[in-house]
């Protein structure tokens, strides 16, 4: 059992480590805010429903009280007309309506307390959401600054620029090689030119034209 528990703990630790590494703070903050906004929307719907119940009970309570007042006035009117039976029936209905009014009033007061409590909770949620939005902006700025600082530190320490450094080194070697090849080519070209000049210098007239020309010059001089 201890071995299985140890393996489970190691597995959970590895999973949590992977999750921590994979979580992008900025994206997670946005997701948390979206979740909070959905909660606020659900709360707004619940508050709206409770307010509707409160208003309905208030209306029923007020209508019942108005009807009770009306039945009392009608009973008085019936007595003035000498119709005691009608007055009695009006008072009986008044009592029933008064009982309903009292019941509606109790329900209304209870619904109002609930609605007021939900309004307060909704206000707290909205305040918290607003606070989280402001905090999100601050945390996002801090996260971006930290990423930039990390990238700069890695660049300064050579981490992340190794490929670029190796690339520059290879190109430098190629340039040196090209320069060496150009210098060797120039030396070879100069050597061949010098060889050609000496070849021209040592070239002899194999046709005898030069000798015949010199003989003619000698005859003229005589």
From TrEMBL:
Pfam families: PspA_IM30. Keywords: Coiled coil. Residues 26-74, 115-188 form a coiled coil. Transmembrane segments: none annotated. InterPro entries: PspA_VIPP1 (IPR007157). PANTHER family: MEMBRANE-ASSOCIATED PROTEIN VIPP1, CHLOROPLASTIC, PHAGE SHOCK PROTEIN A. Belongs to the PspA/Vipp/IM30 family. This is PspA/IM30 family protein. It comes from Tumebacillus lipolyticus.
């Amino acid at each position: 059992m201890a071995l299985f528990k140890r393996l489970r703990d190691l597995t959970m630790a590895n999973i949590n480590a992977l999750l921590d590494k994979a979580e992008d703070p900025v994206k997670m903050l946005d997701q948390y805010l979206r979740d909070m906004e959905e909660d606020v929307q659900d709360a707004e719907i619940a508050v709206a429903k409770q307010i509707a119940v409160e208003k309905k009970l208030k209306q029923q309570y007020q209508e019942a009280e108005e009807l009770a007042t009306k039945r009392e006035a009608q009973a008085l009117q019936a007595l003035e007309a000498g119709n005691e039976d009608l007055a009695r029936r009006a008072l009986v209905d008044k009592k029933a309506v008064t009982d309903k009014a009292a019941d509606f009033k109790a329900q209304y007061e209870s619904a109002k307390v609930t609605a007021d409590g939900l309004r307060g909770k909704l206000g707290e949620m909205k305040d918290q959401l607003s606070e989280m939005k402001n905090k999100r902006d601050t945390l996002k700025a801090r996260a971006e600054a930290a990423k930039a600082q990390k990238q700069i530190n890695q660049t300064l320490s050579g981490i992340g620029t190794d490929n670029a450094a190796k690339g520059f080194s290879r190109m430098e070697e190629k340039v040196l090689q090209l320069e060496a090849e150009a210098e060797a080519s120039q030396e070879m070209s100069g050597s061949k030119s010098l060889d050609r000049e000496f070849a021209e210098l040592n070239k002899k007239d194999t046709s005898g034209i030069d000798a015949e020309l010199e003989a003619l010059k000698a005859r003229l001089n005589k």
